Amino acid sequence: MSHRVLVIPGDGIGAEIMPHVVRVLTALGPAFDFSYADMGGCAIDAHGTPLPPDTLAAAKAADAVLLGAVGGPQWDDLPMDRRPEKGLLGIRSGLDLFANLRPALLFAPLADASSLKAELVADLDLLIVRELTGGIYFGEPRGVTVDNGGRRGFNTYVYDEREIARIARVAFDLAAKRNGKVTSVDKANVLEVTQLWRDVVNEVHAEYPQVALDHLYVDNAAMQLVRAPKQFDVVVTGNMFGDILSDVAAMLTGSLGMLPSASLNASGQGMYEPVHGTAPDIAGRNVANPLATILSAAMMLRYSLNEAAAADRIEKAVQTVLERGFRTADIMPSGRAVGLEVLGTDAMADAVIAALS
Ligand code: IPM
Ligand code: MG
Fold it and tell me: Is residue 336's pLDDT more than 80?
């Protein structure tokens, strides 16, 4: 049976990169049944809404969704409920993709690309597990009102214990297969909702005696991530803290252009997308780095399609092209570049395909 993959290319470099990623998948061997749908800015232009109902229905019917990226300056001035980001939040919530996995893995040939000293980040391999369908992003009530002549904006930071327990289990399960350590990040010294977070994570931990658990306040976690990032294995946290900390973790590896992500629901269905955005400034010039989306496709093979061997082949091929000295512009060091060669988007994908065998 072929794997049913819904491809959502999106906007900017997302749409530019996606055909090359489909080429990589097609070169692998397993049979895929690709279908395509609009989301984000292109969907606003074509259908008047960032998440057309047909797109959500097609996503529900697929085994997995592969997403490029959405957004761009031409849609920035729209009201909040019609912006491209609303499409992303809508599909996350519509598919109940509560578990967002954001690995920050430093490929050894790129150690010099980090803004931290190479020894602090060499062999870095941490995984942020971010709760994705709750917390302050979705809490009600929310809005802006006018009271007594003054405006007042408000959002609600809310988690129930079921939401906390299920994301904690994802983190403990993954840590058990990695280095056996979970760090839970909260603000339990100030926010009651995160006191509950800490209590529930501790309760779930009782089911995982083989995994070590510690807790950090989010401010300290941010500091530790740039001070000594290799102390972390799996970091589990809520939606907003995870949004912020995953950008910090991403930058430890030197380039947003290398980082994949997975968003999973309870039935293993998932959406896979690079951490980077649509980069409108470089879109359409064949210079964007396709590796984050290629690595997202590898995560899709591993987590939703039960094709671990194919996922390994992609990840090894990426390692090989980097070892051979191939770079896109974003991961090219500014100084010495002996033995390195800059490739465009298409040629980088070709190099990965050539390295697959
Ligand atoms: C991310 C992004 C999104 C988020 C935006 C685009 C809504 O920053 O995936 O991290 O905040 O979740
Ligand atoms: Mg973000």
Answer: no
